[in-house]
Protein 1
Amino acid sequence: MSLPPPALFLDRDGTLIEDLHYQADPQKVRLLPGVREGLQQFHQQGWLFFLFSNQSGIRRGLCTLEAVEACNQKMLQTIGLGENLFARTCLALGTPEQPCEYRKPSPKFILECLGDYSLLPDRCWMIGDKETDVQSGCSAHIHTLLLTPIPCNTQAEACCANFFEVTALLLKNA
Ligand SMILES: [Mg+2]
């Protein structure tokens, strides 16, 4: 029997695109360095992608679900690997004051995907730019990687300064 595919659980803002805080304008969506090239390489090697984004701005009235989805569409167009790049997308709409069950650091979305797609935790990575991203991955017992310009105190197994480094690190070990 062949192994299930490896998978990336990806934060959006500050990980795949520039974090403009409650991003609502698709025209302002900018991929971060190395994301396009990196995802193309992972894709070629058969990795699955899951988008896992806290979007409390919707509940706070700072942006709309339609605007967030329009930004996701723009991001997908810019990546250029098709509109169905993500096997599943989780937009957690809770706020810190009123968290929803999926809001990071909750591992609920990751755990559901591990089950539904029969993934092996040891072949999955949570990648994000905040410690709450790392915590969601740790709680789901998958690998964790923090994107950070400078080394910092983190629970993450690995730190990278940009997505070029992510790709080099993970595909070297694949
Ligand atoms: Mg982020």
Protein 2
Amino acid sequence: MLGDHGALPADRALHSPPPKTGLSCKTVLQAVGRVLRKSKAKPNGKKPAPEEKKVYLEPEYTRSRITDFEFKELVALPREIDLNEWLASNTTTFFHHINLQYSTISEFCTGETCQTMAACNIQYYWYDERGKKLKCTAPQYVDFVMSSVQKLVTDEDVFPTKYGREFPPSFEALVRKICRYLFHVLAHIYSSHFKETLALQLHAHLNTLYAHFILFVREFNLVDSKETAVMDDLTGVLCGGASGAGSNGAGGAQNHVKER
Ligand SMILES: [Zn+2]
């Protein structure tokens, strides 16, 4: 569907008539060059706008959800359910949903369009198993995230599913790590691929997924508020600003998992 649009500029270029004005291509280029030099020579004294307009904050889009369900009730730990079991099943589900949401725009997230893994003005770096910082493009970063999370959630020693098996002592720390990475992916989709998400009519899904995810990590204090601060404006709109968005959500009375 979207691929068709890509063919338009090439078509136009093929069918555009040759210039009839007698101006040679060189003359046109020289004229363009003069205009460019002129505009460079006359700076207006102001720096260019640091950020593009955040389309995802426009009310007509933030209103879009696939359900009006009260997620605060949905994320709370049900009675008689083990906390780790609850964290495990929700984290696994969010991983699958966020992976799916990213896959809808992945053809637009390439090494050329997204040379770094960024969300608004924040840049993320991947650290390998030895803690070495790696320079990578956004699709490479997302690939690292998805493959490492896939490995963890399918590891019986980390996410046990069989009766009688215990969660490891590092379980909570690993869940926090997974949620942090998944947040980066969501933030990247909003900041770099919201227009494509809109074109695919999937923004209501994205908003619903984001609100559910943020309320879940807030409930169990799984992602540092400094980490989520980059999307506080959106979080305030989608999850209710008055009740304390990502910036101060860490002190919530219902947090079951303590900061370390
Ligand atoms: Zn991208």
